Every structure is written in C-alpha cells, then in structure tokens.
Amino acid sequence: MTTATTESMGRLRSGSEYLLPLGIVGILAVMILPIPPFVLDLLLTFNITMAVIILLLAIYIARPLEFSTFPTVLLVTTLFRLSLNVASTRIILLNGAEGPSAAGEVIKSFGNFVVGGNYAVGFVVFAILVIINFVVITKGSGRIAEVAARFTLDAMPGKQMSIDADLNAGLIGEDEARRRRDEIAREADFYGAMDGASKFVRGDAVAGILITLINIVGGLVIGVLQQGMSMSDAAVTYTLLTVGDGLVAQIPALIISTAAGILVSSVSSEAGLGTSLGRQFLVNPKPIMIASGILFFFGLVPGLPKFAFFALSAFTGAMAYVARTLGAEAESEQERLREEELRAEAARPAAEESEELPLVDMLGLDVGYRLIPLVDASEGGELLDRIKAVRKQFADEMGIVVPSIHIKDNLQLKPTEYVFFVRGFEVARGELMGGYSLAIDPGNAQPGLDGIETRDPAFGLPALWVPDSEREKARLMGYTVVNHAAVVATHITEIIKNHAHELLGRQEVQGLLDKVAKVYPKVVEDLVPNQITLGGLQRVLQNLLKERVSIRDLQTILETVADYAAVTKDADLLTEYVRMSLARQITRSVQDADSVIRAVTLSQEVEERIAGSVSQSQLGSYLAMEPSAAQAVLQGIREAVEEAMSLGYQPVVLVSQEIRRFVRSLTERPFPTLPVVSHSELTSDARVQTLKVVGL
To answer: Which residues lie closer than 8 Å to 617 by C-beta, 6 or more apart?
Structure first.
C-alpha cells in the first residue's frame, strides 16, 4: 500500500510540471473562445475553491518560504480571474436579455441570494468589497512586502558574515552553509517578488470597477437599442447580472489578497498561524478577564442588547479561566522539570561532568580589535576567503582536510596583533601595521625604499612596512608587496604545514580509509587491522606529513605498507619504505625551477660515524652520537646551507637510505624545513648538483 502510494505521488509530481503551461493556455482560451454557461459555473466555482485553498495554506504554513511560489500563484490567479471577467462579460452582453439564468447559476445566485435580488444593494456591497480590497488589504500587504524586501536585502551581508563565521568556527559544515546561503537568497527573491506581485492585485481591483461600469453601460445600450427592452427592465436585468458577476470575482480576489497579507506579515515559527495565535492569546489571561468585565458592564447599560453582551462576557470569562488553568498547569510542570533537572545535576558524577567539557579547537586564530575588519566580509575583509582557499589548496596538495579555524577577537591582544593556536596552544603570533603594506625583498630588489624594517612572519625574510600609498613604487623597485590579509593567510599556511601531522588523528585516518575503501575496498580490507593497526598507520602518515610529504596518493602508501608490514611493524621503518615508493613525488618536490636538485652531502666518514652511532631499544632505533661530533656535523650543514642560500639555491641534504631518518632527527630542531632525502628516494633520471660535502 505504501509503495503504491509513493509511486502515485511520484507520478503526480512528474506530471505537475505540465499543469502550469496547460493552465495558462486554458486561461487564454477562456478569454478568446465563447464558453457555455455551465462551463462558466464550473470555472467560477473553481476560482472560489482555489482562493479558499490558498488562504488556508497561508494560515497553516510555519514559514513564508514554504509557499515561495505564492507570487507566481498570485499572478496566475489574477490572470485567471480577469479571463473569467472577460468570459462572463461576453455571456452577459450576448444573452442577458434571456433572463437572470443567462450567465449561469453561480452569477444568478450571487445576484439574487447574496444581495436579495436588489441590484442597488448589490452595487453597494460590490463597491464596499472593492474599497476594502483596494484601499486596505492590498495597500497594506504591498507596503509590508516592500519594507520586508528592503530589510531583507539590507540584512543579507550580516547574515552572510554570520554563516561564514559559523563555518570557519566549525559550528556548521559546507552543506549547511550552502543551504543557509540559498535560503537567504530565496528569502530576498521571495519578498522582492511579493513586492511586485502586489501591484497585480491592486490593478485587478481597479479593473473590477471598470469592468463593472462598462458592463452596466454596455448592457443598457444593448438591451434598449438591440433587444428592444425598456430602460427599467434593461437596468434591472443587466445591472443585477453585472453586480453578481462582480461579486463572484471580487470575493475570491478579497480572499487571495487576505492570504497575501497573512503571508508577508507572518513571522517564521515552528507552528502555523492558528497555533501561534492561540498560544499567544492564551499566554496571559488578564486582558481576556478585563474584556469579559467590560462586556458585562455594557450589558448593564440600558438600551444595549443584554443577551449579546452577557453571552460574550460569559464566553470570554470562560476563555480567561481556561487560559489561567492551563498557565498554572504549565508553570507547575516547568517547575517540576526544573527541580528534576537540578536533582539530576546534583547527582551527576564528576566524571560525567568532565565529559561535557567543551573540546579544544584544533585550530584557532585570535585577532586584535583593529583586525576585525579583516574577517568582516561586509567591510571588504578578505581573510575568510583566503583561509578557505588555503584549506582547499592544502587538501589538494597534501591530501588532508584542514579543520575549520575558529576565529575570534581578543581584547587582551594589541590592536593589530594576531595569535594562532594549534590544539589550544599558541604556536605563532604576529603584528601588523595599520595603513601599511608589507614589502618583501625576494633577493633582487633595488635598495633605497623607505620603510619600517621588519621580517616576513611566515618565512623570516627581510621586509619593510611601507605606506599603502607607496605600494606601486615598492613593486617597481622589485619588492613583493602584500596586504594584511595575505600576510596573515601566508603565515597560517606555513604554520599548518609545520603542524599538519598534529592535525591527523585516528578519526581523520579512518575517514581517509573510508574514502579509499569506496574505490579500492580490497586494499583497505587486507591492511587494517589485519596487518597493521589504525594507530600504526596513523604514525606512518604523520611521519610523512611531518617532513611535508603529501599523502594524496594514499593507494600507493597503503599498498607499500601492506607489502612490508609482514617484514616489520616499526612505523618509522615502514615510513622509509613508503618514501621510496613515492620517489617521483619526492624528487619533484626537491627540484628547483631548472629541475635540478641542489644537494649538500655527507662524507663517507660522517655517514659511517652516524651509522655506527645508531642504538636499539624497545621503542625502536635512535641516534646516540657524541655531542661534540653531532655539533660538528650540524655546524658543517649550517655553513653549507647558508652558502647555498646566498647563491639563491634551496638546498637539500642527500644521504644514504640507511641513515636518512637519523640525519633527519639530527637536523629536525635547528633546520625544521630542511629536506633530508636519500638516493633511493630519487628517480633514476634526477639531475643532482652537489654543492658541498660536509666532513668532520
């Protein structure tokens, strides 16, 4: 039964896309082609039915955007109503001489029953309905739509900034942020469309008056001159039919205008309009009690109808009593729940309380108050967009998704200072200068630029703070000039590269495995946990990231670990095997613009000395070299690296495979970004230039 119902609904939805164009064609046909009275009765009844349905939809929806097609519906129903006016006018003028039933039973009923067969009364009622619709409802709803559209557009930048802040703080994901942005855009489009659609309703009211007057005049002329009727008979017949037709058209118009007013004036809530009204009316019984007393007092006044006032006084008094009773029950229930919550909180163990402590942000950025415009998109701040680009670029290059960065202002910092945190601990800070840009000397800039000497916070290169007015001059002199957002974003990029291994936890590794398993399920199934634990694989990936080796090619990494996991479970040794399998990637990463690897090598004596200083323990192998010898090797490497950099090269340390990881452990602290590679990690066609050989 459920399946059949679902299939029926699916067929209904798939066919609904053809209903609107067919309906528009039908409306045009009603305008052009003559239709018999019984068909006109059906169409007029359908018009009233649609108006009632639209009104009830407007009442029962919780949010205006749930009926976002209303502006289009308003336009179509207005066009439909005008087409019925044209069709009914044709029938009345052609067949009006036949009597009250000439235009169908619906118009006849409205002309006789609703206004008692008195065309003067009918005309007055029609005029009142038009005035209510034109002057009160459509004007008010149009004004509300106009103001709502303007306020919605004015609030868009603030809402967008709030979404960006929540996204960067990690409170919401990309999908939720995209959904919220779409909702903001739809809301602006809706109120803008409602502002325009309300003009159609006002025009419809004016058209109703003109059509009625034209019908009366035309009916009198046709009845007297063509049908041979007397002036009084023609006036009674055609005026009654015309007024009936006008009422049939204006009552649905009034209903739909009311629906438009309800829709644009309603506030988004979890419940419909009826539920919200009932809840808000009964929330405070005092006004209802006072109203009951006033009605009772009016009933005591001589000459006023006692039954009406006493009956309504009793009714409102009963409402006040019910509201008071329900309010007392709700308050007692809330008090009971509050007491239970307090007792549960008092009885909660300390361990449970500690579990509810907020988690530490993986990444955080605190800024001084003068740097707030950097993260405010409404003030032209570029930092949020740059951080998004940094996260995307890092994911593309290194194969790891960087967590959202929680950005907040910190009044304890200097006005133009910023601090970056990893797992809640400060890892870097910097300070900017308002009204200045950072001019970095890439090594070939012309001397003589005036500015405040400083160093680039990301790479430590010599730089100058120059006034923003001197930016172009600095560029012409060969400096790389960057604004504040670029300075902070570049600094953040380098920090993330240095601490990427700290961001890769077991949960993140499992997420990477799940993605690979969708394409290569057998690789993951055979490896974890049969050959290596999740923690062991995490250690291998962290070792790679620590030396800035990308883990994008996760399939190759997993297959290499699977090949050698049977030989050793040592994560450090497995890392060396993985590095050899990533030879092409490592070779490319250490080549310069000329595809040459500028290398600093160690003499055979130094390599043998290091290999002989390797010791074993339960935790694995480690370097136990004499401090004096280690210091001599480091000093030689430092001199060789400085000499190479003075020539404009970015050197690497090239050693044998057996001692590579131990040389890296030796240089890790003094040279954290200096690549240490082995001959086995380079491709056979790699071009290597040895700049210097370090000896003892």
So the answer is: none
**CA separation for the pair 311, 305 (Å, rounded):** 10
* Three-class DSSP category at 528: coil
Name the CATH superfamily, with its identifier, for domain 589-696. Answer: FHIPEP family, domain 4 (3.40.50.12790)
- In angstroms, the CA 263 to CA 240 distance is 35
Q: Which of 57, 55, 49, 52 is nearest to 106 (CA)?
A: 49
Reference 637, options 607, 601, 612, 597; nearest CA is: 601
Residue owning tokens 């009250």: 100
**Bridge partners, residue 596, by sequence:** 687
List % helix, strand, coil for the chain (3-state, nearest 5): 70, 10, 20
Asked if residue 427 lies in contact with residue 495, where contact means CB atoms within 8 angstroms, the answer is: yes
Q: Which positions ≥6 away from 14 have C-beta within 8 Å?
A: none
3-state SS assignment for residue 644: helix
Give CA–CA dist 61/294, Å, rounded: 35
Which residues, 6 or more positions from 621, have their beta carbon under 8 angstroms from its beta carbon? 570, 572, 614, 615, 662
Structure tokens, 385: 């967009």
Is the CB of residue 363 less than 8 Å from the CB of residue 404?
yes
Distance, in Å, from the CA atom of 323 to the CA atom of 328, rounded to the nearest integer, reads 9
Superfamily of domain 363-501 in the CATH hierarchy: FHIPEP family, domain 1 (3.40.30.60)
Interhelix angle 273-281/37-60, rounded to 10 degrees, is 50
DSSP conformation letters of 104-125: -HHHHHIIIIITTT-HHHHHHH
Are 463 and 438 in contact by the 8 Å Cβ rule? The answer is yes
Distance CA 158, CA 504 (A): 34
**How many residues are recorded in the chain?**
696
pLDDT, residue 653, reads: 95
Looking at residue 169, its pLDDT comes to: 60
**Cα 379 from Cα 376, distance rounded (Å):** 6
What residues pair up with 654 in beta bridges, in sequence order? 601, 677
Q: Angle at Cα 56 formed by Cα 50 and Cα 62, nearest 5°?
A: 130
> Under a CB-based contact definition with an 8 Å cutoff, are residues 249 and 226 in contact?
no
Spatial distance between the Cα atoms of 60 and 459, rounded to a whole number of angstroms:
61
Q: State the Cα–Cα distance between residues 632 and 603, nearest whole angstrom.
A: 13
| Range name among 267-276, 382-391, 417-426, 548-557 with the lowest pLDDT average | 267-276
The DSSP bridge partners found for residue 313 are none
Cβ neighbourhood burial of 16 (10 Å; 0-12, 13-18, 19+)? exposed
Say if residues 459 and 501 touch (Cβ distance below 8 Å): no
Going by C-alpha positions, the residue among 95, 78, 37, 34 that lies closest to residue 207 is: 78
Q: What single-letter amino acid sits at 397?
A: E
d(CA 333, CA 328): 9
Question: Backbone phi, then psi, for 418, in 5-degree steps?
Answer: -140, 150
Helix (H) or strand (E) holding 692: strand 687-694
- Looking only at the bridges linking them, the beta strands covering 687-694 and 596-602 are parallel
d(CA 153, CA 193): 13
Q: What is the widest separation between alpha-carbon atoms in the chain?
A: 131
User: Exposed (0-12), middle (13-18) or buried (19+): which is 419, by Cβ within 10 Å?
Assistant: middle
pLDDT digits (tens, 9 = 90+) for 281-328: 666 777 878 888 888 887 788 877 878 878 888 888 888 777 777 766
Nearest of 97, 101, 99, 98 to residue 41 by alpha carbon: 101
User: What would the pLDDT profile of 221-251 be if each residue is shown by its tens digit?
Assistant: 887 777 777 777 777 777 777 777 877 887 8
Rounded to whole angstroms, what are the CA distances from 526 to 531, 558, 559, 668? 7, 10, 10, 34
CA dihedral 156, 159, 163, 169 (to 10 degrees): 140
